[in-house]
Amino acid sequence: MINPQTDRVLITGAAGAIGSTLRRGLRDHWRHLRLTDIRPVPDLADNEEFVVADITDRPAVESMMRDVRAVVHLAGIVGSYTLEDLFRVNARGLFDVLEAARLAGVERIIFASSNHAFGCYPITEKVSPALPPRPDGLYGVFKVWGETMLRNYYDRHGIRSVSLRIGTFRPQPIDQRSLATWLSPADAVQLVDVALRHPDPGCMVVNGYSNNTRLKTVDPNWATLGYKPNDNAEDYRAALRAQGVDVDAPDRDVWEWPEHGGSFPRTPEKPPR
Ligand SMILES: NC(=O)c1ccc[n+]([C@@H]2O[C@H](COP(=O)([O-])OP(=O)(O)OC[C@H]3O[C@@H](n4cnc5c(N)ncnc54)[C@H](O)[C@@H]3O)[C@@H](O)[C@H]2O)c1
């Protein structure tokens, strides 16, 4: 278990959407938070320190790992990307963070993986972390690679980890797919909190959703982790309908996008240079 009173936790990508939410949710209980991002992080609390750095700057990453017991690795390229940036940050940068953590004696890593690690499964099928990955693009491929690295770090070096296959993290569900895949801010905080506190997660992969009525997941490892999500995308059904979202078709298991990954499996990959 990582001790919220005594242990230092490093959060990468702390200026981002999930990082900002985690800061707000964790800082009252976690006494020593070190934050890093390439962008500024505003309004530091007394128990937060901030290091501005590019995650691909290995000396900077090694230095920020000093006295850190656990890492929550969120930094990465999200959304539209060039192949060069994806390789540089989500592959090489991920490697540098994991290696620097290993060399510094970090005991636990929480990794922001993604449901794009299994985005090619049909949305009508329930997915589980126990199934073979089916990434829906290079973004998902590197998330699977990160999970695989962490498997290797556990088997060879005993570093415990929880990879979170995060669905649609937003303040509210945004579309039909997120009726199944939404992860609310409060549930995201709980997910990371229990992943840090768990006495021994081994090398666990967990699906990161809220308690949505239309979940398409089975055995998401929530009971093992002790995660009990409270929010439900269904509570926003009327609001989504008012925005023109067809919220009724999923009752018949008819979905706008036929795979878990939404539009990703059908988006052309960036051409190589
Ligand atoms: N938001 C979602 O729905 C979702 C779903 C699945 C997975 N994830 C994963 O969760 C993580 C956080 O996502 P988010 O929604 O907060 O994204 P975000 O874009 O809001 O935050 C990512 C942060 O990483 C930082 N960053 C990017 N490149 C960097 C670099 N080279 N060095 C240092 N910092 C860098 C950015 O400045 C940004 O603050 C990402 O790894 C993403 O792949 C997010």
UniProtKB/TrEMBL annotation:
Residues 252-273 are annotated as: Disordered. It holds the Pfam family Epimerase. The lineage of its organism: Bacteria, Pseudomonadati, Pseudomonadota, Alphaproteobacteria, Hyphomicrobiales. Residues 9-168 form the NAD-dependent epimerase/dehydratase domain. This is NAD(P)-dependent oxidoreductase. It comes from Vineibacter terrae. Belongs to the NAD(P)-dependent epimerase/dehydratase family. Gene3D superfamilies: NAD(P)-binding Rossmann-like Domain. One of its GO terms (molecular function) is oxidoreductase activity. Keywords: NAD, Oxidoreductase.
